[in-house]
């Protein structure tokens, strides 16, 4: 353990291949239907640049036909024109990515990389959708993008299914990054470690996307970083669906890599995220703990938090644990 | 890692020697000067009994002469009469403990065990106070109590000092339990692991008391439990000084040991702790993250949170990191 600590003190802190992917606009947007105030996106972008963040996820690449009239803000679709209006040609080190949900994305909405400011397409998929996801993956790679595959809700996937799915994934050269995604915030470090071992067998560079239902998003992310995972998802002040994510500011403070700069991130958190947190409900609370412990989708807890009985922990516990 | 997961799935969950010490009244009392509402203590006690908690810490055993006129509530002193008024003779499985701060405790205030409902004395000490602490330890053991030694602020103790201190501790048979205490909430799992290894060399049964400055109190506590630590400190809804502690409800939900019962704990959290959290400031916030990252005492962050600039993260960061 002492040896591991010495090792991590060296390479985790300074490894230039360790990268932060800030998902605030994408995952945080699930808390407010991607309806951010004017100026939010540009401030967020400037903060990522100043903070030395490696990737900023600008939103979803959702099929407008499927979401017509849903009242979603522009970052549900992440049109090229909308992105360029905010970031111009994005000339700098910060890379941009979008999330393409399998079954909700029309690959024809994704331009060739030569015509886009987007650098990476992240394809989100449930285990049973992997064949459909791979169609988006191959299309995106052929168009010239970096490509990540985010396998959601892995905590509910039986090992046998998972290993078969990973075997398929391992044979797809078009996948650059493979993500461990704890959608329900139900995993703790030993389980993360077990998944890292399984995923590493694919030979892919790994990423982690954690949720904070058990106050473990940051803990699991640093555990993953120390155990070889290279892409680390975060959100400003942890803003993300339900219990939210690993806070960008916490991870930047931990990593100490000189490419990161905490102060501009704190400024954005203070001036923009904190006021937003007083209007929009996200982050750890007991109902999310309960769904996390039960390894369930947080939708029931989100509904409770959106009702007039948001602190009825016992009533909710009784409902969730009833037969 | 898979092997460890298999192992932990077995023994962590069911090991009857794994015990929860709820410190809400003692550590949480630091947030409100131990001024709890009428009925709080008894509800807390009943909740611990119903929840299967192993130990409840009733407060400090402070020397009244040193704290005269400080406006502290009764659980700063934990007089025998005050405890008995709430719990009678405490006939049941729940054990009671008090904390004796080295330099603030008069051993003559501690009755012989035969005259007391208290089961365990926890002696809190900084590294340089160990010789003074051992006087309280030996007195308490001679009087018939279980005795724990809580070595505070270990994150600031050089390894050389620590190993010498632990060597002294290892020779004192009167110590039943030795605590890893992360007073500043600055440690992550590898550092906890390193400390567990060092502390284990004393041959003592170990405990852990974590703070939540980096959202790691629960993560570090379950890591410790899986790595051989037996006494696990928690507080209801994490109520404790500054960023607070490992929440009792989170740990009880994780351990799954049939002796624990989450529902009465959730009921107390909902009806008593949540309303209290709207009046008294505790728990993770950015200023505590900053002192945690800096491995500093949280007193400056506590002062900030008690001022009219409690969300001035950047100003506070500039102060803390100025030369």
Describe the model.
The structure is a homodimer of 323-residue chains. By secondary structure, chain A is of the alpha/beta class. Chain A folds into two domains: 2-277, TIM Barrel, CATH 3.20.20; 286-320, no CATH class. Chain A has helices at 2-14, 24-27, 40-51, 64-67, 80-87, 130-142, 159-170, 189-200, 217-226, 248-255, 262-277, 286-293, 299-305, 313-320, and strands spanning 19-22, 55-60, 95-101, 120-125, 146-151, 177-182, 205-210, 231-234. The model of chain A is unreliable at 1-5 (pLDDT under 50). The interface between A and B is large, with 46 and 46 residues.
Beta-strand portion of chain A reads: 5-15%
Order of helices and strands of chain A: HEHHEHHEEHEHEHEHEHHHHH
List unreliable stretches of 5+ residues of chain A.
1-5
The oligomeric state of the chains shown is homodimer
Strand order of the largest sheet of chain A: 1-2-3-4-5-6-7-8
Regarding CATH, which class of the largest domain in chain A? Answer: Alpha Beta
Number of helix segments of chain A?
14
Most extensive interface: A-B, 46 and 46 residues
């Amino acid at each position: 353990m002492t040896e591991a600590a010495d090792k991590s003190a060296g390479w985790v802190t300074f490894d230039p291949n360790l990268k932060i992917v800030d998902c605030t606009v994408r995952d945080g947007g699930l808390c407010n239907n991607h309806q951010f105030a004017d100026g939010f996106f540009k401030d967020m972008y400037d903060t990522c640049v100043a903070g030395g963040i490696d990737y900023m996820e600008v939103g979803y690449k959702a099929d407008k036909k499927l979401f017509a009239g849903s009242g979603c803000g522009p970052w549900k679709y992440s049109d090229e024109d909308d992105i360029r209006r905010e970031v111009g040609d994005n000339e700098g080190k910060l890379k941009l990515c979008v999330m393409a949900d399998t079954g909700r994305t029309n690959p024809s909405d994704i331009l060739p990389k030569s015509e886009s400011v987007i650098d990476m397409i992240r394809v989100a998929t449930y285990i049973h959708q992997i064949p459909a996801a791979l169609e988006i993956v191959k299309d995106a790679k052929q168009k010239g993008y970096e490509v990540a595959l985010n396998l959601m809700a892995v905590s509910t996937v039986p090992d046998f299914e998972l290993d078969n799915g990973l075997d398929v994934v391992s044979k797809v050269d078009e996948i650059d990054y493979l993500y461990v995604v704890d959608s329900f915030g139900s995993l703790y470090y030993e389980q993360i470690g077990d998944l890292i071992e399984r995923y590493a067998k694919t030979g892919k560079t790994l990423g982690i996307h954690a949720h904070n239902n058990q106050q473990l998003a940051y803990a699991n992310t640093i555990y993953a970083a120390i155990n070889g995972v290279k892409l680390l998802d975060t959100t400003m002040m942890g803003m993300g669906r339900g219990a939210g994510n690993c806070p960008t500011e916490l991870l930047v403070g931990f990593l100490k890599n000189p490419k990161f700069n905490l102060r501009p991130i704190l400024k954005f958190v203070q001036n923009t995220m904190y006021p937003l947190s007083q209007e929009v409900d996200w982050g750890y609370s007991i109902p999310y703990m309960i769904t996390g412990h039960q390894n369930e989708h947080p939708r029931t807890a989100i509904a409770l938090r959106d009702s007039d009985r948001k602190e009825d922990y016992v009533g909710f516990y009784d409902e969730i644990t009833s037969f």
